[in-house]
Sequence to fold (522 residues):
Amino acid sequence: MRQKKFFSMNFIPPLAPTPEAVFLLNAGGASCYSEFMRLFLFAFAAAFLCAGVFGAQIGADESRIAAEVYVSSTHGDDANDGSRDKPFKTFAKIPKKDARIFLRKGDVFYEPLAGLENCVVDSYGRGSKKPLVCGIKHLKNPAAWEDMGGGVWRLDMNKTENFGGRNPAISAQTKLVNNLGAIYDSATDTVHGHKVKKLDMLKKDWDFFAGEEYESKKINAETFRWLYVKLGKNPSSDGAELGITTYGNGISGLKNCTVRNVAIKGFGRHGLTGCRGGRIENLEIDLIGGSTQPGYRTWVRLGNGIEFWITGSLASSGNHNYVSGCTISRTYDCGSTIQGITEKGEIVARDITFTGNKYYRCRQAFEHFLTNRADGKSAYEDCRFVGNFAWESGNNEFSTPEPRDNNFLTYDRYRKGMIIRNNVCYGSGIYAGTRGWATDFGDNVFYVEQGKHNLVFVYPWGKQGLTIPANGEADIKKYRETIGDETSKIIIVPESEVESVREELLDGDFKYVKKILKGKGR
Fold:
């Protein structure tokens, strides 16, 4: 039952070469592969190059770049001219179109980055630590907690004098900032993510409540003022360095931009979203999601690492994107997703690729759904999730397990032309959601711990429910008959072999997980 390494994609280039080279370098040397895999990789790179030449623009047209600016949160000043020697301090002064924007390595920017067109965002300076776009609001005053009795503590999140980090004054314009996704202890790199709907639902240690309102028209500056935590002692005791992940997106509103070599952390909505024609390379995205979704029909939480939202328009902001070499970890919902809803006309996701990416403890590595409420055309065209790695999907550290916690999730009503191939996943089941599985699904490798996960879980909506456990060969056979996947390798790992299999994988395809585990603050 044990499988040796299928293929490896551990080498990430320090710089960004040509598009076809990015894919091949992310994939690793030719000696790593069988003849079939080498042909697959080169064919895929060639196909992508042709698409870039003859199709829609992906990434910035660097021949149009008219300005070059530098930003440093530690050494900059917005009164400067934005040169390398005199960088800006914040994003307030950067040009938003036809610009090359460099963020200083090792610096932390406590503000979102948004609204760019035909720009290149990259890092500069010494060291290996990426510049960080951060949404964490740090508690500076441990005495700010009020003991409410009964093992419940309260914190006034509107008192900006008690906080640092992303900490704007709360007003009608910033009223959603304190709609937090999680409490984060940077001293131990611990996520406390079990958010409850009502105050009387605080039952276990570190349960927290921060308002039950979700109707947009009823939300004001007081809605998310108070944070309540269930704990027998001051939450900031014992050396804890607490912060909250604030509502919002890390990077958004991009049109034909290249974004590479930066990190995003601590936003309660999404890491990167609202991107059309984007080339996204070598990002680190961590600790994303968990906020309550304003305006939804009920109280629900949200949050994806990279989300491409598709509308019924041909100019949908989520189309024509290429994501490679990114590491995405600890997302409340999925690490990456293609999704959308339209009320009329057609909804088509076009030309979107995720490849050579590494996922760690996201609820799912990848989600896809397109909903056309007018029953018109609904399709994926040239959309693929190929050659990626995922470790322990479902265990996202938010303490909110759900039946849908598998590597892949779909809410499509029927099977459509999504391509999911040549991925390697450890520690969770395969598919969840509905029966709208990708039509081109195969040649993946799944290591599933025996008896702990379901190979397939389908919600019982419309009498479509289905559960296929992961106990043995009979379950694998049923999976293949159900999905039609005859080519993926499925290794059910008995409890007695879990430790040895994990060690082998951590020394092979999943070396990136060892790097994550070594980093205190990731």
